[in-house]
Amino acid sequence: MPDPPKAARLPLSFDPAGLQADLAMLGTDEWIAHFNTRYYAGDWSGVALRSVAGSNNPMYGDASHHDFADTQRLQQCRHLRAVVEAFECPLRSVRLLRLTAGSVILEHRDFDLGYELGEVRIHVPISTNPGVEFYLENRRIVMREGECWYLDLNLSHRVQNLGSSERVHLVIDCQLNEWLRAIIASGTPSEGTESGYEPFRRRVLDDAGLQEELASLTDRSAFVARTVELGRQNGFQFETGDVDGAMQAARRTWMERWIV
Question: What's the pTM?
Fold first, then answer.
């Protein structure tokens, strides 16, 4: 079987209206903030649907544990439960993850996940908007409500919610078996699209004046802010996260080239 793609829409789909009805049943006090505040700015929180020993903490998922169980909340949400039951493979953590409007998940990698490690993460968007930008290795992957996506989250990824409504995904951690391998293999791969920063970067490479101005900025924050400002002045739309992501990617490329 060939290597899996970095991202693929799987041949499964679910009714967004039903999932959103289940979502509306949740109380505001059920959402628990992600403990790793270094990874995000704003509000990134979750609700556990399947967890270690049925715990209500959606962020607790020690890889050494095997006693995952459905929570009481999942039993009460028939549409969400139907999605979970559609997966004919061993399941570990299942969560709802919410990113509110204006919030950002910073670039990171989930090192405990990977096709070659036997555990992958599936995303089913329940509530989203056109302003949500998910980047996998600096390529934007657009995921729509009710779709089902496999993503190689061992790779660098980040999210920014530039819209006016929250983004909520059902996130399912699965152990690979033959059924899941076949579903991923039959999915529709997506290479994604570049952010608005990339055409501006190419513009800078052809403009000595822009190069000189940006090269004079030694403070990282000032450099990023001025880059965004110059981009908009020249008709390019991107955010600080796009610049940070590109800088980190360039640093990784340099390290891979020179550090052995």
Answer: 0.87
Q: Maximum distance among all alpha carbons in the chain?
A: 62
- How many other C-beta atoms are found inside a 10 Å radius of the C-beta of residue 225? 14
Name the helix (H) or strand (E) containing 256: helix 240-258
- pLDDT per residue rounded down to tens, the chain (260 residues): 578 899 999 999 999 999 999 999 999 999 999 988 888 999 999 999 999 866 666 665 455 556 899 999 999 999 999 999 999 999 999 999 999 999 999 999 998 899 999 999 999 999 999 999 999 998 999 999 999 999 999 999 999 999 999 999 999 999 999 999 999 999 999 999 988 888 999 999 999 999 999 999 999 999 999 999 999 999 998 888 889 878 877 766 555 555 44
Domain containing residue 246 = 195-258
> Does residue 124 share a domain with residue 45?
yes
156, 174, 193 — which closes off a domain? Answer: 193
Cβ neighbours around 164 below 10 Å, total? 9
